[in-house]
Amino acid sequence: MRQQLLYLWLAESALDTEVVAWAVYDGAKGGGPALPSSEAAGAFPYATGLEVIESGWRLLQAPQAGSPVGTTEPLLGELQFQFIFERWVAIGS
Amino acid sequence: MGDRHRLLSTAAMADFVADGFLRFDALVPEPLNWAALEEMKELAPGKLRRALHGLSGRPGTLPSGSDSIESPESLTPLEDCYPAPSALGEVLRLPAVAGIIESLVGSNPVFDHDFIHHIPAGAPRGQHLHVDAVLEPAAQAFDIQLFYFPTAVAKGGGGTRFVPGSHFRRARAEGIARYQHVLGEQHYSGPPGTLLVFHQGLWHAGQPNPSGEDRWMYKLRLNPRVPQQRLWNTADFPGLHNDPRDHSFARPGSHSVAQRLRRMAPWQKGHEGRYEQMQRAALWRYLSGDPAFDVDFYQTRQRVRAGALSPGER
Fold first, then answer.
1. Residue A47 belongs to a domain
2. A72 inside domain
3. What's the pLDDT tens digit per position in B124-138?
4. Is there a contact between A76 and B180 if contact means CB atoms under 8 Å apart?
5. Domain boundaries, position B263
6. CB-based contact (8 Å) between B143 and chain A?
7. CB-based contact (8 Å) between A19 and chain B?
8. Paired residues of A5 in beta bridges
9. pTM (global) more than 0.90
Protein backbone atom coordinates (compact mmCIF):
# COMPACT_ATOMS: atom_id res chain seq x y z
CA MET A 1 0.00 0.00 0.00
CA ARG A 2 1.14 3.49 -0.72
CA GLN A 3 -0.12 6.92 0.27
CA GLN A 4 -1.39 9.52 -2.17
CA LEU A 5 -1.73 13.09 -0.93
CA LEU A 6 -3.95 15.84 -2.22
CA TYR A 7 -3.52 19.42 -1.05
CA LEU A 8 -6.35 21.84 -1.64
CA TRP A 9 -6.60 25.53 -0.94
CA LEU A 10 -10.21 26.61 -0.75
CA ALA A 11 -11.84 30.00 -1.10
CA GLU A 12 -13.09 29.96 2.47
CA SER A 13 -12.68 27.91 5.64
CA ALA A 14 -15.68 25.70 4.78
CA LEU A 15 -15.08 22.39 3.04
CA ASP A 16 -17.89 23.02 0.56
CA THR A 17 -16.29 26.16 -0.91
CA GLU A 18 -14.45 26.44 -4.20
CA VAL A 19 -10.96 25.14 -4.93
CA VAL A 20 -8.49 27.93 -5.74
CA ALA A 21 -5.22 25.97 -5.78
CA TRP A 22 -4.09 22.38 -5.56
CA ALA A 23 -1.14 19.99 -5.47
CA VAL A 24 -0.77 16.21 -5.57
CA TYR A 25 1.94 13.82 -4.42
CA ASP A 26 1.89 10.19 -5.45
CA GLY A 27 3.62 7.72 -3.15
CA ALA A 28 2.62 4.98 -5.60
CA LYS A 29 4.68 6.59 -8.38
CA GLY A 30 1.89 6.09 -10.86
CA GLY A 31 1.31 2.48 -9.82
CA GLY A 32 -2.06 3.24 -8.22
CA PRO A 33 -5.29 4.76 -9.48
CA ALA A 34 -4.92 7.90 -11.55
CA LEU A 35 -4.53 11.16 -9.73
CA PRO A 36 -5.91 14.54 -10.72
CA SER A 37 -3.49 16.00 -13.22
CA SER A 38 -0.29 16.98 -11.45
CA GLU A 39 1.45 18.38 -14.49
CA ALA A 40 -0.96 19.79 -17.02
CA ALA A 41 -2.53 23.12 -16.28
CA GLY A 42 -6.27 23.21 -16.56
CA ALA A 43 -9.45 22.70 -14.69
CA PHE A 44 -9.26 20.74 -11.48
CA PRO A 45 -11.64 17.75 -11.46
CA TYR A 46 -13.15 18.64 -8.08
CA ALA A 47 -14.98 21.95 -7.69
CA THR A 48 -15.05 21.90 -3.89
CA GLY A 49 -13.43 20.13 -0.96
CA LEU A 50 -16.69 18.32 -0.33
CA GLU A 51 -16.51 16.66 -3.76
CA VAL A 52 -13.09 15.32 -2.81
CA ILE A 53 -14.35 13.37 0.20
CA GLU A 54 -17.34 12.24 -1.83
CA SER A 55 -14.79 10.65 -4.18
CA GLY A 56 -13.25 8.59 -1.41
CA TRP A 57 -10.39 10.72 -0.13
CA ARG A 58 -9.95 11.03 3.65
CA LEU A 59 -9.45 14.41 5.23
CA LEU A 60 -6.11 14.53 7.00
CA GLN A 61 -5.85 18.17 8.01
CA ALA A 62 -8.13 21.19 8.01
CA PRO A 63 -7.10 24.78 8.66
CA GLN A 64 -7.18 26.12 12.19
CA ALA A 65 -8.94 29.37 12.93
CA GLY A 66 -6.65 32.21 11.96
CA SER A 67 -5.45 34.92 14.30
CA PRO A 68 -7.66 37.98 14.29
CA VAL A 69 -6.14 40.80 12.30
CA GLY A 70 -4.62 43.57 14.37
CA THR A 71 -5.51 47.21 14.60
CA THR A 72 -3.01 48.15 11.93
CA GLU A 73 -3.42 47.49 8.21
CA PRO A 74 -3.92 43.74 7.81
CA LEU A 75 -1.20 42.01 5.80
CA LEU A 76 -1.79 39.28 3.25
CA GLY A 77 0.34 36.16 3.16
CA GLU A 78 0.13 32.64 1.79
CA LEU A 79 -3.18 31.09 0.87
CA GLN A 80 -5.34 30.80 3.98
CA PHE A 81 -7.47 27.69 3.79
CA GLN A 82 -5.31 24.61 3.28
CA PHE A 83 -6.88 21.16 3.45
CA ILE A 84 -4.86 17.96 3.11
CA PHE A 85 -6.42 14.68 1.99
CA GLU A 86 -5.00 11.20 1.66
CA ARG A 87 -5.90 7.86 0.25
CA TRP A 88 -4.08 4.55 0.52
CA VAL A 89 -3.76 2.59 -2.67
CA ALA A 90 -2.52 -0.84 -3.64
CA ILE A 91 0.31 -0.71 -6.13
CA GLY A 92 -0.71 -2.11 -9.47
CA SER A 93 -4.41 -1.51 -8.79
CA MET B 1 10.78 64.49 -18.19
CA GLY B 2 10.42 62.36 -21.27
CA ASP B 3 7.94 62.42 -24.11
CA ARG B 4 4.61 61.99 -22.36
CA HIS B 5 3.14 60.06 -25.28
CA ARG B 6 5.33 57.05 -24.57
CA LEU B 7 4.37 56.91 -20.88
CA LEU B 8 1.75 54.58 -19.44
CA SER B 9 -1.80 55.77 -18.89
CA THR B 10 -3.58 56.02 -15.56
CA ALA B 11 -5.72 53.06 -16.64
CA ALA B 12 -2.62 50.92 -17.26
CA MET B 13 -1.15 51.93 -13.92
CA ALA B 14 -4.36 50.94 -12.15
CA ASP B 15 -4.23 47.59 -13.94
CA PHE B 16 -0.65 47.14 -12.75
CA VAL B 17 -1.77 47.80 -9.17
CA ALA B 18 -4.58 45.25 -9.51
CA ASP B 19 -2.75 42.51 -11.43
CA GLY B 20 0.87 43.05 -10.39
CA PHE B 21 2.08 42.92 -13.98
CA LEU B 22 1.73 44.43 -17.43
CA ARG B 23 2.30 42.68 -20.73
CA PHE B 24 3.44 44.25 -24.00
CA ASP B 25 3.43 41.89 -26.97
CA ALA B 26 6.08 42.33 -29.68
CA LEU B 27 7.15 45.65 -28.20
CA VAL B 28 10.76 45.29 -29.37
CA PRO B 29 11.18 45.18 -33.16
CA GLU B 30 12.50 42.05 -34.79
CA PRO B 31 16.00 43.06 -35.97
CA LEU B 32 16.82 44.36 -32.50
CA ASN B 33 15.56 41.12 -30.94
CA TRP B 34 18.07 39.14 -32.99
CA ALA B 35 20.93 41.38 -31.91
CA ALA B 36 19.79 41.27 -28.29
CA LEU B 37 19.64 37.47 -28.39
CA GLU B 38 23.22 37.27 -29.64
CA GLU B 39 24.33 39.63 -26.89
CA MET B 40 22.46 37.60 -24.29
CA LYS B 41 24.22 34.43 -25.44
CA GLU B 42 27.52 36.24 -25.10
CA LEU B 43 26.73 37.57 -21.63
CA ALA B 44 25.17 34.44 -20.17
CA PRO B 45 28.33 32.47 -19.27
CA GLY B 46 29.91 35.42 -17.45
CA LYS B 47 26.78 36.21 -15.46
CA LEU B 48 26.43 32.58 -14.46
CA ARG B 49 30.13 32.35 -13.51
CA ARG B 50 29.90 35.43 -11.30
CA ALA B 51 26.69 34.27 -9.62
CA LEU B 52 28.14 30.84 -8.84
CA HIS B 53 31.30 32.41 -7.47
CA GLY B 54 29.36 34.73 -5.22
CA LEU B 55 26.89 32.14 -4.00
CA SER B 56 29.65 29.61 -3.28
CA GLY B 57 30.98 31.84 -0.49
CA ARG B 58 34.50 30.62 -1.20
CA PRO B 59 37.26 33.19 -0.81
CA GLY B 60 39.45 33.72 -3.82
CA THR B 61 39.60 35.72 -6.97
CA LEU B 62 36.72 35.53 -9.37
CA PRO B 63 37.89 33.61 -12.42
CA SER B 64 38.37 36.02 -15.26
CA GLY B 65 36.21 35.70 -18.30
CA SER B 66 36.35 37.06 -21.79
CA ASP B 67 33.27 39.26 -21.75
CA SER B 68 33.39 41.88 -24.47
CA ILE B 69 30.41 43.66 -22.87
CA GLU B 70 30.64 44.78 -19.29
CA SER B 71 27.83 43.74 -16.96
CA PRO B 72 26.73 46.66 -14.77
CA GLU B 73 27.37 46.79 -11.05
CA SER B 74 24.46 47.12 -8.65
CA LEU B 75 23.56 50.77 -7.87
CA THR B 76 24.56 51.90 -11.35
CA PRO B 77 22.06 54.46 -12.67
CA LEU B 78 20.14 52.79 -15.47
CA GLU B 79 21.22 55.42 -17.98
CA ASP B 80 24.82 54.28 -17.51
CA CYS B 81 24.07 50.57 -18.05
CA TYR B 82 24.96 48.90 -21.33
CA PRO B 83 26.24 52.00 -23.17
CA ALA B 84 26.22 51.94 -26.96
CA PRO B 85 26.97 49.86 -28.83
CA SER B 86 24.86 47.34 -26.95
CA ALA B 87 21.69 45.70 -28.21
CA LEU B 88 20.37 45.23 -24.68
CA GLY B 89 21.09 48.89 -23.98
CA GLU B 90 19.22 49.76 -27.13
CA VAL B 91 16.24 47.70 -25.96
CA LEU B 92 16.20 49.48 -22.60
CA ARG B 93 16.44 52.87 -24.28
CA LEU B 94 13.63 52.28 -26.78
CA PRO B 95 11.09 55.06 -26.16
CA ALA B 96 8.34 52.55 -25.43
CA VAL B 97 10.48 50.58 -22.95
CA ALA B 98 11.94 53.69 -21.33
CA GLY B 99 8.42 55.09 -20.99
CA ILE B 100 7.21 52.00 -19.16
CA ILE B 101 10.20 52.15 -16.82
CA GLU B 102 9.79 55.87 -16.19
CA SER B 103 6.08 55.50 -15.46
CA LEU B 104 6.70 52.89 -12.78
CA VAL B 105 10.07 53.68 -11.17
CA GLY B 106 11.13 57.06 -12.54
CA SER B 107 13.32 58.10 -15.42
CA ASN B 108 16.62 56.97 -13.96
CA PRO B 109 16.24 54.14 -11.47
CA VAL B 110 19.23 52.15 -10.32
CA PHE B 111 20.29 48.79 -11.64
CA ASP B 112 19.76 46.08 -9.03
CA HIS B 113 20.84 43.05 -11.03
CA ASP B 114 20.04 41.22 -14.22
CA PHE B 115 20.39 37.67 -15.47
CA ILE B 116 20.06 35.67 -18.65
CA HIS B 117 17.60 32.83 -18.15
CA HIS B 118 18.23 30.09 -20.67
CA ILE B 119 16.07 26.97 -20.65
CA PRO B 120 17.45 24.55 -23.24
CA ALA B 121 15.12 22.59 -25.50
CA GLY B 122 14.02 19.43 -23.71
CA ALA B 123 14.83 20.68 -20.20
CA PRO B 124 12.65 18.43 -18.01
CA ARG B 125 12.52 20.34 -14.74
CA GLY B 126 10.84 23.57 -13.77
CA GLN B 127 11.18 25.75 -10.71
CA HIS B 128 8.82 25.76 -7.80
CA LEU B 129 6.63 28.80 -7.46
CA HIS B 130 8.59 31.49 -5.61
CA VAL B 131 9.01 35.18 -4.87
CA ASP B 132 12.36 36.76 -5.62
CA ALA B 133 14.70 38.07 -2.93
CA VAL B 134 13.48 38.22 0.68
CA LEU B 135 10.49 39.12 2.80
CA GLU B 136 10.85 42.87 3.20
CA PRO B 137 9.28 45.34 5.63
CA ALA B 138 5.87 46.45 4.44
CA ALA B 139 6.18 49.58 2.30
CA GLN B 140 4.46 50.92 -0.74
CA ALA B 141 7.58 51.76 -2.79
CA PHE B 142 8.30 48.83 -5.09
CA ASP B 143 10.85 47.53 -7.56
CA ILE B 144 9.97 46.30 -11.00
CA GLN B 145 11.33 43.32 -12.86
CA LEU B 146 11.42 43.28 -16.64
CA PHE B 147 11.11 39.91 -18.38
CA TYR B 148 12.15 40.34 -22.01
CA PHE B 149 11.69 37.47 -24.47
CA PRO B 150 13.65 38.14 -27.69
CA THR B 151 12.34 35.03 -29.44
CA ALA B 152 8.88 33.54 -29.83
CA VAL B 153 7.83 31.25 -26.99
CA ALA B 154 5.28 28.61 -27.96
CA LYS B 155 2.73 27.22 -25.53
CA GLY B 156 4.54 24.68 -23.37
CA GLY B 157 7.89 26.07 -24.49
CA GLY B 158 9.24 27.01 -21.07
CA GLY B 159 7.43 30.32 -20.69
CA THR B 160 7.40 31.77 -17.20
CA ARG B 161 4.54 30.68 -14.96
CA PHE B 162 3.06 33.46 -12.83
CA VAL B 163 0.04 34.20 -10.67
CA PRO B 164 -1.74 37.46 -11.51
CA GLY B 165 -2.70 39.42 -8.43
CA SER B 166 -0.29 37.64 -6.08
CA HIS B 167 2.05 40.59 -5.50
CA PHE B 168 0.53 41.68 -2.18
CA ARG B 169 0.77 38.18 -0.73
CA ARG B 170 3.83 38.43 1.45
CA ALA B 171 5.71 35.17 1.62
CA ARG B 172 9.18 33.81 2.03
CA ALA B 173 10.76 32.96 -1.28
CA GLU B 174 10.04 29.23 -1.22
CA GLY B 175 7.12 29.30 1.21
CA ILE B 176 4.82 29.16 -1.76
CA ALA B 177 6.59 26.26 -3.48
CA ARG B 178 3.77 23.87 -2.61
CA TYR B 179 1.21 25.51 -4.88
CA GLN B 180 1.46 23.30 -7.96
CA HIS B 181 -1.60 24.87 -9.55
CA VAL B 182 -3.37 28.11 -8.79
CA LEU B 183 -6.64 29.04 -10.43
CA GLY B 184 -6.02 31.69 -13.08
CA GLU B 185 -2.24 31.30 -13.20
CA GLN B 186 -0.63 31.98 -16.54
CA HIS B 187 2.13 30.25 -18.46
CA TYR B 188 3.72 32.80 -20.71
CA SER B 189 3.80 32.26 -24.46
CA GLY B 190 4.05 34.99 -27.04
CA PRO B 191 5.71 36.58 -30.04
CA PRO B 192 9.32 37.80 -30.25
CA GLY B 193 10.10 41.04 -28.48
CA THR B 194 7.46 40.68 -25.77
CA LEU B 195 8.02 42.38 -22.44
CA LEU B 196 6.43 41.45 -19.13
CA VAL B 197 6.80 43.92 -16.29
CA PHE B 198 6.30 42.50 -12.80
CA HIS B 199 5.86 44.10 -9.40
CA GLN B 200 8.64 42.70 -7.21
CA GLY B 201 6.21 40.60 -5.20
CA LEU B 202 4.60 38.65 -8.03
CA TRP B 203 4.73 34.87 -7.60
CA HIS B 204 6.43 33.15 -10.54
CA ALA B 205 8.50 30.15 -11.67
CA GLY B 206 10.55 28.98 -14.62
CA GLN B 207 8.97 26.04 -16.40
CA PRO B 208 10.16 22.84 -18.07
CA ASN B 209 10.81 23.18 -21.77
CA PRO B 210 9.75 20.00 -23.57
CA SER B 211 9.74 21.88 -26.89
CA GLY B 212 12.45 21.68 -29.50
CA GLU B 213 13.37 25.37 -29.13
CA ASP B 214 15.69 26.90 -26.55
CA ARG B 215 13.98 29.55 -24.45
CA TRP B 216 15.86 32.76 -23.71
CA MET B 217 14.77 35.52 -21.37
CA TYR B 218 16.50 38.63 -20.06
CA LYS B 219 15.42 39.63 -16.57
CA LEU B 220 16.26 42.99 -15.02
CA ARG B 221 15.40 44.34 -11.57
CA LEU B 222 15.26 48.10 -11.07
CA ASN B 223 14.97 50.13 -7.84
CA PRO B 224 13.22 53.52 -7.85
CA ARG B 225 15.08 56.55 -6.50
CA VAL B 226 12.17 58.98 -6.49
CA PRO B 227 8.66 58.78 -5.04
CA GLN B 228 6.65 56.79 -7.57
CA GLN B 229 3.99 59.45 -7.66
CA ARG B 230 2.17 60.35 -10.90
CA LEU B 231 5.21 59.58 -13.04
CA TRP B 232 3.00 58.33 -15.86
CA ASN B 233 0.90 60.22 -18.45
CA THR B 234 -1.85 61.61 -16.25
CA ALA B 235 -4.03 62.93 -19.07
CA ASP B 236 -6.72 60.41 -18.11
CA PHE B 237 -6.18 60.83 -14.36
CA PRO B 238 -8.96 63.34 -13.63
CA GLY B 239 -11.54 61.14 -15.33
CA LEU B 240 -10.53 57.92 -13.57
CA HIS B 241 -9.28 58.80 -10.12
CA ASN B 242 -12.14 58.64 -7.65
CA ASP B 243 -12.86 60.00 -4.21
CA PRO B 244 -13.68 57.82 -1.17
CA ARG B 245 -17.41 57.81 -1.89
CA ASP B 246 -16.86 55.22 -4.65
CA HIS B 247 -18.39 52.39 -2.64
CA SER B 248 -19.97 49.16 -3.91
CA PHE B 249 -22.54 49.10 -1.12
CA ALA B 250 -23.57 52.72 -1.71
CA ARG B 251 -22.79 54.30 -5.10
CA PRO B 252 -19.96 52.67 -7.02
CA GLY B 253 -18.37 54.37 -10.01
CA SER B 254 -18.38 52.66 -13.39
CA HIS B 255 -15.19 53.95 -14.98
CA SER B 256 -13.12 54.73 -11.94
CA VAL B 257 -9.79 53.47 -10.66
CA ALA B 258 -11.75 51.85 -7.83
CA GLN B 259 -13.73 49.79 -10.31
CA ARG B 260 -10.50 48.56 -11.90
CA LEU B 261 -9.12 47.68 -8.47
CA ARG B 262 -12.21 45.62 -7.68
CA ARG B 263 -11.49 43.18 -10.49
CA MET B 264 -10.22 40.04 -8.76
CA ALA B 265 -8.11 37.20 -10.12
CA PRO B 266 -9.88 33.82 -10.35
CA TRP B 267 -8.17 32.59 -7.15
CA GLN B 268 -9.24 35.66 -5.19
CA LYS B 269 -12.74 34.62 -4.27
CA GLY B 270 -15.32 35.81 -1.85
CA HIS B 271 -14.77 38.08 1.07
CA GLU B 272 -11.02 37.46 1.17
CA GLY B 273 -10.87 39.74 -1.84
CA ARG B 274 -11.63 42.69 0.41
CA TYR B 275 -8.15 42.45 1.88
CA GLU B 276 -6.70 42.49 -1.62
CA GLN B 277 -8.72 45.63 -2.32
CA MET B 278 -7.35 47.29 0.80
CA GLN B 279 -3.79 46.56 -0.32
CA ARG B 280 -4.48 47.84 -3.81
CA ALA B 281 -6.08 50.99 -2.44
CA ALA B 282 -3.05 51.63 -0.22
CA LEU B 283 -0.71 51.34 -3.21
CA TRP B 284 -2.90 53.68 -5.25
CA ARG B 285 -2.84 56.20 -2.38
CA TYR B 286 0.96 56.15 -2.69
CA LEU B 287 1.03 56.34 -6.48
CA SER B 288 -1.64 59.02 -6.77
CA GLY B 289 -0.49 61.07 -3.80
CA ASP B 290 -4.07 61.16 -2.54
CA PRO B 291 -4.20 59.97 1.09
CA ALA B 292 -8.01 59.97 1.02
CA PHE B 293 -8.33 57.54 -1.91
CA ASP B 294 -10.28 54.40 -1.11
CA VAL B 295 -12.09 51.45 -2.65
CA ASP B 296 -15.30 50.42 -0.91
CA PHE B 297 -14.76 52.52 2.19
CA TYR B 298 -12.61 50.08 4.19
CA GLN B 299 -10.05 52.71 5.17
CA THR B 300 -12.41 55.69 5.08
CA ARG B 301 -14.76 54.41 7.76
CA GLN B 302 -11.76 54.01 10.07
CA ARG B 303 -10.78 57.62 9.39
CA VAL B 304 -14.32 58.78 10.05
CA ARG B 305 -14.47 56.73 13.23
CA ALA B 306 -11.15 58.13 14.43
CA GLY B 307 -13.01 61.38 15.05
CA ALA B 308 -15.07 59.57 17.66
CA LEU B 309 -12.08 58.72 19.80
CA SER B 310 -11.33 60.69 22.94
CA PRO B 311 -8.01 62.57 22.82
CA GLY B 312 -6.32 59.91 24.97
CA GLU B 313 -7.32 57.14 22.59
CA ARG B 314 -6.14 58.81 19.40
1. yes
2. no
3. 999 999 999 998 887
4. no
5. 241-313
6. no
7. yes
8. A25, A86
9. yes
